[in-house]
Design brief:
By secondary structure, this protein is an alpha/beta fold. 32% of the residues lie in helices and 18% in strands. It starts with a strand and ends in a 29-residue tail after the last strand. The structure holds S-adenosyl-L-homocysteine (SAH) and iron/sulfur cluster. S-adenosyl-L-homocysteine (SAH) binds next to strand 8 and strand 10.
Length: 360
């Protein structure tokens, strides 16, 4: 049975029409599903009984299974979630979402959402990439991550998830259609209700997807840059062979930004690979003319990886070069490293060493 939370507003309109109900029922049904987070058709008390029965005969509502919550000493929480196809048996896919308290007194709560169960792009510094490809997540599985996160923080002193980043496992722009549906529901005031300014999508540089997203959805864009020459980037991120730096930077220059808007450049610093002062100077040149902020993420090691994190001194030196060139460059201290919730440390599927792309 199809999960009702896989339907967009337009698709629900088709369902309502096919069942011979009045058009105004669409808004009611949509509101129950996404704004009110209904977990059963029976919760929808203002829908006529007959309509509810007809819905129940044809569709279901299924939440993700909350398998485990781990809390880090820094307040970061990692949610291990079982997907719909895992129901009733071992071997189902699992994903992870991370809740990161940020800002003063942790007033901002950022949820890091996964968009695929693995990643086909194979970046060599990333656990998800090294664990291999997975499948695309559906609309309901992405909405389900927000619902799971909301369910565990509600009641905790009125806190709520304030920001959402698509930066967990997977490459969002390779699951474009479903991710766009999710962004639609996420940023709809009548849906999950996040303003587009509170939502960020992170990509490894899938150029056609960047071009399309710019026209489709005014969310913030983050790009995992990680290198300043094609030679190094080819080695770290095989996607660079398909969309080399020249194409990527051209797409970023064209990306529509609101006044005072910017693109976030993520740069994982790997000892002896991309962390030299010369890299920082090339980065300054590469970014010329692009309104951006730079997040420097010292590499998070994982079992089996051959790379190392640079020492604090070279991180500071790298950052200093960017700051002197008047860029905002922030070193993202890894959150949740003690529970393996930091960037690149998310676990993958059941029974595997697993992987995970994201983190903050
Ligand atoms: N596929 C998308 C989003 C998920 S990856 C993308 O690549 O942007 C999210 C972030 O985690 C990326 O910026 C990536 O560079 C970073 N990352 C992956 N592995 C890491 C590791 N081992 N240490 C630090 N950051 C890592
Ligand atoms: Fe995929 Fe992003 Fe990890 Fe690269 S960094 S393998 S694109 S999840």
């Amino acid at each position: 049975m199809k999960n009702l939370k896989n339907f967009t507003h337009d698709e629900l309109a088709g369902v309502v029409k096919a069942l011979g109900e009045k058009p105004y029922r669409v808004a009611q049904l949509y509101g129950w599903l996404f704004a009110k987070g209904a977990q059963s058709v029976d919760d929808m008390t203002d829908l006529p009984g007959e309509f509810r029965e007809a819905l129940k005969e044809r569709f279901c509502i299924r939440a993700l299974e909350l398998i485990e919550i781990r809390t880090s000493s820094d307040g970061t929480m990692k949610l291990l979630l079982g997907l719909e196809d895992g129901e009733g048996g071992e071997g189902g896919e699992r994903i992870e979402s991370v809740i990161i308290p940020e800002g003063e007194e942790g007033r901002r709560l950022t949820l890091c959402v996964s968009t695929q169960t693995g990643c086909a792009l194979g970046c060599v510094f990333c656990m998800t990439g090294t664990a291999g490809p997975g499948r695309d997540l559906t609309l309901s599985e992405m909405v389900g991550q927000v619902e799971a996160a909301r369910s565990i923080i509600v009641g905790d002193g009125g806190e709520r998830i304030t920001n959402v980043v698509l930066m967990g496992m997977g490459e969002p722009l390779l699951n474009y259609d479903e991710v766009l549906k999710f962004l639609g529901v996420l940023t709809d005031p009548k849906g999950l209700g996040y303003s587009p300014g509170k939502v960020t999508l992170s990509t490894a540089g899938v150029v056609p997807g960047i071009e399309k997203l710019g026209g489709d959805m005014p969310v913030n864009l983050a790009v995992s840059l990680n290198a300043t020459t094609d030679e190094v980037r080819d080695r770290l991120m095989p996607i660079n062979k398909k969309y080399p730096l020249k194409l990527l930077m051209a797409a970023l220059r064209e990306y529509p930004l609101k006044r005072r808007g910017h693109i976030t450049m993520e740069y994982v610093l790997i000892k002896g690979v991309n962390d030299a002062p010369a890299d920082a100077r090339r980065l300054v040149n590469l970014l010329h003319g692009i309104p951006c902020k730079i997040n420097l993420i010292p590499f998070n090691p994982f079992p089996g990886s051959e790379y190392e994190r640079p020492d604090d001194k070279s991180v500071k030196e790298f950052q200093g070069i960017l700051v002197r060139a008047r860029y905002t460059a922030v070193v993202r201290t890894s959150r949740g490293a003690d529970i393996e919730a930091a960037c690149g440390q998310l676990r993958g599927r059941r029974g595997e060493r697993g992987g995970g792309g994201g983190g903050n």
